[in-house]
Amino acid sequence: MLFARHDLHRCFPKGSESARSYYEAHPESREYDERIAALPGIGRNGAGDAPLFEELFAAARSLARESDVDGRPAAARTDLAPEEAARRVKAYARLIGADDVRTGPLRREWVYSHVGRSFGDAEGHEPWGTPVDLSHHPNAIALAFRMDLDFVKSAPEFPTLVATGAAYALGAHVTVRLAEYVRSLGYSARAHHVYNYRVLAVPVAVDCGLGELSRAGFLITKEFGLGVRIGVVTTDLPLSHDGPVDIGVQSFCERCEICAERCPSGAIPFGPKVEHNGIMKWKLDEERCYRYWHTVGTDCSICMATCPWTKPHIWLHRGASRLAAVAGPHQSLMVAGEKLFYGTGTREARGRSQGLASLRPTRLGLHMRFAGAAAVALLALGVWFGADRGLWSAGFQKGAAYSIWLGWLVFGLAVVWSFAAERERRPAGIAVALFGVPAVVAAALAARAGWLGF
Ligand code: B12
Ligand code: SF4
Ligand code: SF4
User: Fold this and answer.
1) Nearest ligand by distance to the CA of 299
2) Domain boundaries, the chain
């Protein structure tokens, strides 16, 4: 894979045996790899914030030696029923920072054949080309680490790279500690994270039921969309299995091509799935993607930021993702709605040129509580006003019309407030017009007809 190919140039001395044998088998990759190696690396545009990005990746790197990710199980084995074992590992992983955890089988197809990243055969790492054997691990634990969406929304600017680094640092810590916990129960366990994978994370996560593979080429989860990183622990601990799941992604992606439209490198395909390595999927052109990273100086993330599923986990988007999970033509309407509300360009890059300092935390939880309180207050005011004007007792027609109007107003306020709290100006503006104009027109008509007693 691409990072292993890049390492042949950035970690090994020129003309190394590893590079010679790789390009003998894959001469078609040489020209691309040499061109990438000559380009400046990523993270160079972080200015004063660059050390933050370097430190986060260094934190993950400090947990990447074989002795960090693997080790001997405790001599005494704790007997656990598979359901109880799964409950314990999930509770532990969540306790120390995972945002979601699922368990499933480890299929041989998702295990790399050979070690690809050894950082130039650095001390503590298995050498490049060592055959990988995980046949003693029948089970996998897939962990999700959500990304900071404020930072991701700045894609492809520098703050998005910090979001990546932060989730990787946490992922390395949690997978390494979780594997250690499983070993303390007397079972074999290995962590797989950014600087030491032996498995393909996405299909493992699909088998465990974390989410589904998308058109963009990686995993969508119901809660975090594409805005999530994956860590894996493989083990011989007997575990009950959760996955896979159907959350409607396949039919949604068939109808939505937003990531393909916004991808600056043209790496994400339009149209139907194709067969690749025996799997029907949308196949990413990874060389185009990686070349763009070196042009822009970050890991881009535009596909992640602009996917309709990548939204904060608040009531408004939770409701939408429930609707999106049901396959049907309404999914096309949702795509049209996404384009109307969020526009057709990439999202506003708030972090542009000002770096991290311009990104304030949104305190979404606090705003949602205020929104709830404001909606209840408006409702109470509306009920009192209706009673004062005799609208509830004036017959079914007036009562029903007034209830619908009041419900519309309260719902509209909550929607506008939610978008405003996310600092999504365009959707907030559209929601004001969408809810406000009919509400004002209806109130004016009611006042004219003398319904309100004005
Ligand atoms: C190499 C790599 C890259 C390369 C190549 C990507 C690629 N598709 O191969 C480059 C540099 C381009 C890249 C880009 C990005 N990456 Co990347 N990348 C990896 C890495 C380290 C290895 C993937 C690999 O071996 N690919 C080689 C072959 C197999 O790729 P492929 O044929 O295109 O297959 C892809 C999918 O179709 C799927 N897959 C393959 N076979 C099968 C079979 C089935 C049944 C299913 C369901 C899926 C599936 O797996 C591959 C992608 O992981 C993984 C970590 C890991 N160990 O898995 C992270 C990983 C896939 N990347 C990740 C991310 C987030 C990104 C970016 C968004 C960058 C960013 N800002 O973080 C972009 C997105 C590009 C895109 N649209 O997919 C995350 C995805 C998280 C998620 N929600 O799924 C991962 C899992 C890292 C992590 N630990 O979280 N990446
Ligand atoms: S990370 Fe950027 S270049 Fe790569 S696929 Fe996503 S949008 Fe395209
Ligand atoms: S942007 Fe649309 S097509 Fe792309 S992954 Fe997200 S839902 Fe699927």
Assistant:
1) 1
2) 1-38, 43-350, 364-448
Is residue 12 within 6 Å of ligand 3 at its C-beta? no
Instruction: Name the E strands within 321-404.
Output: none
* Residue 226 main-chain phi, psi, to 5 deg: -85, -5
Tokens of 148: 């900071």
**Ligand nearest to the backbone CA of 283:** 1
Ligand 1 centre from 203 Cα, in Å? 10
CA distance 58 to 64: 10
ω into 105 cis (within 30 of 0): no
Cα radius of gyration rounded to whole Å, the chain: 26
Q: What is the pTM of this model?
A: 0.94
Torsion of CA 313, 319, 324, 329, to 10 degrees: -150
Find the 293 Cα to ligand 1 centroid distance in Å.
14
H or E element in which residue 418 lies: helix 396-421
The first and second tokens of residue 387, run together, are 């009673």
pLDDT digits (tens, 9 = 90+) for 213-247: 999 999 999 999 999 999 999 999 999 999 899 99
Q: What is the dihedral of CA 118, 123, 129, 133, to 10 degrees?
A: -100
Quick check: 230 and 210 in contact, CB under 8 A? Answer: yes
Q: Which helix (H) or strand (E) holds 139?
A: strand 139-146
339 CA from centroid of ligand 3 (Å): 12
CA-based torsion, 244, 250, 253, 255: positive or negative:
negative
Q: Which residues line the pocket of ligand 1, CB cutoff 6 A? A: 1-3, 164, 194, 197, 200-203, 206, 213, 216-219, 226, 228-230, 268, 276, 279, 281, 283-284, 286, 289-290, 299-301, 303-304
From 247, 309, 317, 332, give the residue whose CB has the most ligand 3 atoms within 8 Å, as the site to mutate: 309
Dihedral angle of Cα 97, 203, 312, 356, to the nearest 10 degrees: 70
Go through 100-134 and write b for each residue having 16 or more CB atoms within 10 A of its CB, e for each that does not. Answer: bbbbbebeeebbbeebbbbbbbeeebbebbeeeeb
Cis peptide before 13 (omega within 30 of 0): no
- Give the CB-side neighbour count of residue 251, counting CA atoms within 13 A: 15
Query: Could you tell me the distance, in angstroms and rounded to a whole number, from the CA of residue 249 to the centre of ligand 1?
Result: 17
Following CA atoms 116, 188, 201, 232 in sequence, which dihedral angle do they give, to the nearest 10 degrees?
-120
* Residue written as token pair 């949690």: 174
For 131-180, write each residue's pLDDT tens digit.
999 999 999 999 999 999 989 988 999 999 999 999 999 999 999 999 99
